[in-house]
Amino acid sequence: MARPATVEPTSAHSVASTAATLGRLALILWRSYIVRRLLKAALTIYLVSTLTFFLIRLMPGNPVDVYINTLISQYGFSYQDAANQAAALFAFNPNEPLLAQYRDYLQALAHGDFGKSITSPGTTVTSIIATYLPWTLFSTGLGLLLSFALGVLLGMLTAYRRERPIDHLLTALGSFFQSVPNYLVAIVIVVFFGVRLGWFSIAEMRGAYSPGVQPSLSVTFIKDALYHASLPIATYVLTTIGSWLLLMKSSTIATLGEDFVTVARARGLKDGRIMSAYVGRNAILPLFTQAAIAAGFVVGGAVVIEQIFQYQGIGYILLQAINQRDYPIMQGIFLIITFAVVLANVLADLLYSRLDPRIRAMGGSQR
Amino acid sequence: MTTQPELLAMKPPSLGHRLARSFRLGLSVLWQNKVGFLGFLGVLFFIALAIFGPLIAPSSGEPNMAQIYQPPSWSHPLGTDYEGRDVLTQVVRGGRPIILVGALAAILSTLIAITLGALVAYVEGVLDSIVMLITDVVLTIPQLPLLVVLAAFVRLNRPWLLALILALLNWPTLLRAVRAQVLSLKAREYVEAARALDLGLFHILFREILPNMASYILMSFTIGMTGAIYGQVVLYFLGLAPLAGDNWGIMLNLAWTRGAIFYRDSMPYILAPVIAISLLQLSMVTMTRSLEQVFNPRLREG
Amino acid sequence: MMTATPHTQPVLAVRDLIVDYQTRAGRVHAVRGISFDLYPNESLALIGESGCGKSTLGLALLRLLPKSAETRGTVHYRFRDGQTTDILTLDDDATRAYRWKECAMVFQGALNALNPVLRIAEQFWDTARAHARLSKAEVYDRAEHLLRLVQLEPGRVLRAYPHELSGGMRQRVMIALSLLLDPQVIIYDEPTTALDILTQRAIIDMLRQLRDQLGFAMIFISHDLALAAELADRVATMYAGKIVELGDVREIFYRARHPYTVGLLKAVPPITGDLYEIAAIPGSPPGLITPPSGCSFHPRCPYAQPRCSQEEPPLYHVADGHTSACHYWQRVTLERQVVEHA
């Protein structure tokens, strides 16, 4: 039997209690490091998207107007038709007032619509990104991993062999390659080692993979891809290994001075165990935030390197788009690169908080 | 018991006095750190080159198509370029534009970082939160793509425009560092004393806090300049900055695009600007690093 | 309380131990010729002010000094099977085997003595694994037993990370860990410093109990003479890198024969009343790069004579098992003027 419906007064009391519960919930959520971090990331993405939007729309000689003018003057479009064409390409409608365009833009972005290419009509920016981004991720990702792993190992080595010749040598080399701009290293590799000394054939190594080889997961393809990516990877490793080495060296030296290392020796633990689980694991912790930041910028840093080695990744395409004034692609790639940085930063922060039990316990760092 | 005239005579050291003292201190410790001193000498050399280079070599000469890509010889110690002009002359001349614009960009970014950073650190509150948020966001944006995209929109035919764009990339890191430093200095006694004496915001900022950050400011400047030079050369190399003139970046661009990489004899043409830029960057970085060790004794190897 | 009988062999026999450090300021003579014996199941206290070299001595007995330190002399250790060896001559592997299994050390202020990224259980396992082939179950069983001995709850503690435990708990974990391999000698360096009063009391009682139960020999290093009264069988006072007095605990407390020991005793406020005057020892301990000539205590000594600044005193025989490094030990008396409370 149904209960008689009771009228529940929406009194101030129940509103207040709901507000209080929500408030408490918000406080609990706020205390959670993860939530704070994600919110900040979302805010950054939003702000950058907005920035890009206004950059493109409001800059003198902004591309939309230029495009429309070109269509009108060179191709005899009417303003309306030109505007409609622009609307399709730039993922928003120039006919509408600014704020409405902004809303459309954000909506399109949320759906992953970055517009269409001007120079390759019919191709969406998203598809272009999808084709070339993996190559950049592949080469720079491998470069970062290798550089980090080698740098950390060498850093520990130089810390253990402090003040010995190997320390001085590695530290000097690392610092040297750190200071010289990375594109100059790339140029020297091409010019000196490639052309002058003929150690490898530059022409052959152009591109992300050899023409005629089909992208697949076969061993041939992977080998080919690695061959083409080897020079960019070598450049990344050479020019970034120094920082990991120096960071790990100072971190290891600091850790070696900690009490628990002395106690570990007193407990009769083997040197190998102390080096890995006691010194290594503790020394490497601070490096992860750095690695996070580096991972984020890894995508952006590829711009010049890919140009020099003619490696068709996202950086190469960005430059191409710039030279061809293909603004939708430019905007799309720029946004994607920035999102990648934000994402990488968040992931790494979360990773770090999981790895260091002390931070895990505090419910997130007190930064 | 001190008398009035004696009290007046006991003035605190002037700004110039304090700067001179820090300068002398910096020099003496640099001398102790040989590598850093070498870097310092290198920087001095390049500054001299920037000032006197174009005076020694007033012009790059006329194109001489019969002398393209000549190997090094007595008349052309570094060979010739794609138009037959002497490479050495261009190298000597080519530093000034880059260094000037680099310095200008560094001044701009250091100015922004210092005034905004110090102000925000001192005043704190909402202004601080807003500025820090903006800084964080800008820091997240990858610099090279931003630089490259901006260059596409803005016609960089004026040097100060170029400097401005470069400065835009550097200020967030510097601002953060400055802010942190000011925050720590704020807690010191003499600042407390100044506040108690109600000496006013600008007085405290400019006469108490900032002079003690002279070293910091110097380092921010050199770091900013290193970044600005890096960015400049990228823009010239990629053809995103106007190729008028013959600075090192333009030399790189021309050498690369005009096929210098394919001839063995033209190796000096492309390597000369590479080495020049590398040496400049190296000198700046080594000098900065030893300055860092000077001003932050904890970094010194035990 | 064990007293040395002619039939008991010492488990640790230190002879003329010298430790020098090379520092920027000069060569520091941290330990300047120390000799003593430690008998099984006995408790020896090493008392001295900071900077007298007592911690260095502890580290030297485990060969944990940094490479810049030079150690000379002999430290003979007697294994359970009767064999003796000079541990200062052991190679790396043998040293590693000796550490913790034969002689363990609990350091001062265990706040950072444990690896922050490993759970307590893993640290027990690490230690056991480095010395013997045991199964995890065996090790954890023993760990549980030991943790109960130090009055900790094994379930909670074993699963925890070091930072999740309080300072006192971490100190107890270290004590439990030191017992893991059943060593013959355990060295405690300032076991109660950096702990609050209540925890200090608990730790002292616990240490006494443990020794009674398990029968290991104990050296504890402290500046606190009162602690010696609680825990020690024999007391050695150290000054400027040397032992200046050594004897049975009662002898030392009631019939001290070295001015420094007397000074230390006088400085301990009595419970029953007040002292007429603050009985600190004037002056401060000497730097160990250039120690004073002759007897290193002479600049601060109320009994000093010209001979003291010229001739270094050996350890004179005062009574059975009681020695004192003072030329004029016969004149040294302990007089405390206490104003009794009502």
Quick summary of this structure?
By secondary structure, chain A is mainly alpha-helical. Chain A is built from 16 helices and no strands.
How does this structure look, described?
- The complex is a heterotrimer of chains A (367), B (302) and C (342).
- The model of chain A is unreliable at 1-5 and 362-367 (pLDDT under 50).
- The longest helix of chain A is centred in the middle third of the chain and has 38 residues, at 219-256.
- Chain A has helices at 12-31, 33-58, 63-75, 79-90, 98-110, 125-160, 165-179, 182-196, 202-205, 219-256, 259-266, 271-300, 302-309, 314-323, 327-355, 357-361.
- Chain A is an all-alpha fold and 367 residues long.
- By secondary structure, chain B is mainly α.
- Chain B has one domain: MetI-like (MetI-like fold, Orthogonal Bundle), CATH 1.10.3720.10.
- Chain B has helices at residues 4-9, 15-32, 34-56, 87-93, 95-123, 126-140, 143-153, 159-186, 189-196, 201-209, 214-237, 248-257, 267-295.
- The longest helix of chain B is centred in the middle third of the chain and has 29 residues, at 95-123.
- In chain C, strand 9 (234-239) and strand 10 form a beta hairpin.
- The mean pLDDT of chain C is 86.
- Chain C is an alpha/beta fold.
- Chain C folds into 2 domains: 12-232, P-loop containing nucleotide triphosphate hydrolases (Rossmann fold, 3-Layer(aba) Sandwich), CATH 3.40.50.300; 265-340, no CATH class.
- In chain C, the strands form 3 sheets. Chain C has an 8-stranded mixed β-sheet with strand order 6-7-8-3-9-10-13-12, with helices on both faces.
- At the A-C interface, helix 11, helix 12 and helix 16 of A face helix 2 of C.
